[in-house]
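Entry, Tuesday afternoon. Goal for today is a structural model of the target with NAX bound, before we commit to ordering more compound. Inputs were pasted exactly as handed over by J.K., no edits. I checked the ligand SMILES twice against the vendor sheet because last time a stereocentre got dropped in transcription.
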Amino acid sequence: MERAAAQCVQWLLQHKGGFNRYTIICGKGNNGGDGLAIGRLLQERGIEVVIYILEFGHLGSTDFQVNLQRLHDRHIQPHFIQTESGFPQLAPTDLVIDALFGSGLNRPLDGLAAALVNHLNAQGVPIISIDVPSGMLLEESSAQGPVIRAGHTLSFQNTKMAFLLPENGAFTGQVHVLDIGLHKGFSENAPYTLIDQKLVGTIYKSRSPFGHKGNFGHVLMVGGATGKMGAMVLSAKAALRAGAGLVSVLVPRIGYFVVQTAVPEAMCMTEAGEEKLTEFNIESFRYEAIGIGPGMGTAAETQKGFSTLLSNLEYPVVLDADALNCLAQQPTLLSTLPKGSILTPHQKEFERLFGICENDFARIQLAQEMARQYGLYIILKGHHSLVAAPDGQAFFNSTGNAGMATGGSGDVLTGILTSLLGQGYTSLHACILGVYLHGLAGDIGVQQLSEEALVAGDIVAHLGAAFRQIRSQA
Ligand SMILES: NC(=O)C1=CN([C@@H]2O[C@H](COP(=O)(O)OP(=O)(O)OC[C@H]3O[C@@H](n4cnc5c(N)ncnc54)[C@H](O)[C@@H]3O)[C@@H](O)[C@H]2O)[C@@H](O)CC1
Ligand SMILES: [K+]
């Protein structure tokens, strides 16, 4: 706790914002203990602190009591909040440090604690939360109770899964994970694994110097329709840049010159359909992997051909975009998909396929259930994409940024995943490496371009730098 408090104080001193006074609000668990220790350390450095303790009528955790005694020893007198009249009145030059509840919160806040959180949020002063914004539950949705809206959260050691969910973004503000010398990543018994450089480094396979293009897979990208041929261009380029030895593309006739011109490295096939795919004449034995869906449309003839194709597939494929929308219209097809196939829905596509969910936690749970039920890998795309595996494992990606919320970004991911499958990665490894690479290429792209200016083609353009970074640290 002393180490945690010292790290917080160091961060606070490095980010001084001209505040006259630090108001520290403590609970009586260990999060409150952190708050008391932070108060003492700040005061030792000559900073004016006012400490409030929300009174629960019990002594508090052992570490809380130890730190309360240390305050008494230094003649620092905290205020005890017993009713709403004891709530702190704050000035614009105050900074609030929120140490009410941390990871030990086990139910939504109510009563005086809920009123205090609402009061603090209404003051309009900056709040820095210690470990977790008070009121946030780490393993279920916090929608039922009030939660502190922090500008910054100083969290200890672990990236908490709840911080990765869109519904919690407004509460945490910017998250800073401080190293206090404990195990890194998610906590050891967490039901999720973080996809980080360390994990990806164990999966990435460097190429044999004697390899030739036949060693790195021949992959087929299937999709495209009038007005959406760019999706196929992006996914084919991504498949090439992600390392496939050969890339073929199947598009309706109207796409032939587009693909041949925009992606000369790819081979292009067309079929009877002029403006949309109808027949899906695919000799699957010719390819090591197939990705289906970008820009494909959901016309009745396309759906018919697509469902016939699915019943003939013999190995796992990647399905995205309109392939998922076709599936959503004929959900019985889900059970005909080759086991180990990869589905890459964003939130809307996921809900069309599997139903609407109340909150992010419910959606994650449903994705895990569906992955298990159908024997599929489901990549639920978002700021931090989830990979749900059929054996119940679940992973959260740590790369990526808001600049990647741009048209075509998903088509690029489809190309990357198909390419990795084609190079012999298992479905699980293709998902883990694929989402990480995709996000990392976006992160590198944003450094040069800004979140606003990044477009999907830039993700493809930065795949090389992303591979180099992964390889250099593997
Ligand atoms: N290795 C660690 O785990 C470390 C933990 N530390 C701190 O310890 C915190 C966890 O401490 P605790 O487990 O004591 O828990 P917290 O301090 O988060 O709060 C739990 C306390 O609140 C009570 N409580 C739970 N839900 C409540 C509700 N809805 N309304 C009112 N009371 C409620 C509990 O009975 C308990 O007394 C972390 O967030 C972090 O701040 C740090 O000191 C650093 C090291
Ligand atoms: K807190």
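The CA atoms of residues 340 and 376 lie 5 Å apart.
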